[in-house]
Write a structure and sequence with these properties.
By secondary structure, this protein is of the alpha/beta class. It has twelve helices and five strands. It has a five-stranded mixed beta sheet with strand order 3-2-1-4-5, with helices on both faces. Strand 2 (134-141) and strand 3 (147-153) form a beta hairpin.
Length: 275
């Protein structure tokens, strides 16, 4: 209508489309600009790879721009531009197995810390998306969810967790640190336990078969798979692409992704701000 109004006239075209002139002029007034708020929301969604929900977008508007809006307003804008976040598939689990402990469970699901390098959690996860199976070993700081080290290999031998531990300890004070893992053979190995002891680290282990005892790192691995792989991958990936995707997600998680428990800061931002 805007293009042809000089040829046919506004009233004639309104009659042809079955709308009133008032409706047309209301639309014209609204469509003259993308409101600044809408543009900011679009920028936020783009920056965080369209993984944030409307509640988190509203929180970031308050934190980064000083703009206070109802979360439903953010939701309406995101729906208008089809910016809804990807939903992570839910996985039903229940604790199973015996309560026998190879090493005492000192963490006891207390996923809080007062300072960096007080408590770490670690685990290995499978990445079955490429030409061969990949194994990702990670260590996370409970204090601020920061990934302090990770190693990606095509084998899951004990050297995988030893190298991850070595990378995590490099340049950090680890005496008295609590490191929690599951009862995987890599962590119960003499080599790993000895390496941890030499660095002054106290080891802790989940109960056998109880994923909730190590829920923090399990949740991270679930997020990595759903956000970087499962939702977007529709065909096998080359090994180089898998490595690139893991590196990219680790940077995003540590330096960009906001967390509610960190006052909507990223892990590294929270650590540096609190220092």
């Amino acid at each position: 209508m805007e293009t042809n109004k000089h040829l046919y006239g506004v009233q004639a075209m309104c009659d042809a489309f079955g709308i009133s002139r008032a409706t047309y002029y209301r639309w014209k007034k609204r469509s003259r600009e993308i409101p600044a708020l809408h543009q900011i929301i679009m920028d936020i969604c783009r920056r965080y790879r369209y993984w944030l929900g409307h509640r988190k977008v509203a929180a970031l508007l308050r934190k980064d721009y000083g703009i206070r809006i109802n979360r439903k307003t953010a939701q309406r804008v995101m729906q208008k531009y089809q910016l809804q976040c990807q939903v992570k598939p839910k996985k039903r689990t229940r604790p199973t197995g015996e309560t026998h402990q190879t090493v005492p469970n000192l963490l006891q699901q207390e996923f809080t810390a007062d300072r960096p390098n007080q408590k770490w959690v670690t685990d290995i996860t499978y990445l079955p998306y490429g030409e061969k199976m990949w194994y990702l070993s990670t260590i996370m700081d409970v204090y601020n969810n920061e990934l302090v080290a990770y190693q990606l290999r095509d084998t899951q031998e004990t050297s995988l967790v030893l190298d991850t531990l070595e990378a995590a300890c490099r340049g950090r004070e680890t005496y008295g640190l609590l490191l929690h893992s599951d009862q995987g053979s890599q962590y119960t190995s003499r080599a790993f336990q000895q390496a941890a002891k030499e660095k002054g680290i106290i080891t802790s282990m989940s109960r056998k078969g109880n994923c909730f005892d190590n829920a923090m790192i399990e949740s991270f691995h679930s997020s990595l798979k759903s956000e970087e792989f499962s939702i977007r991958v529709r065909m096998p990936l080359t090994s180089s692409i898998i490595v690139e995707k893991v590196d990219s997600y680790m940077y995003y998680y540590n330096y960009i992704r906001p967390f509610t428990k960190l006052n909507d800061h990223s892990p590294v931002e929270f650590r540096t701000t609190a220092a």
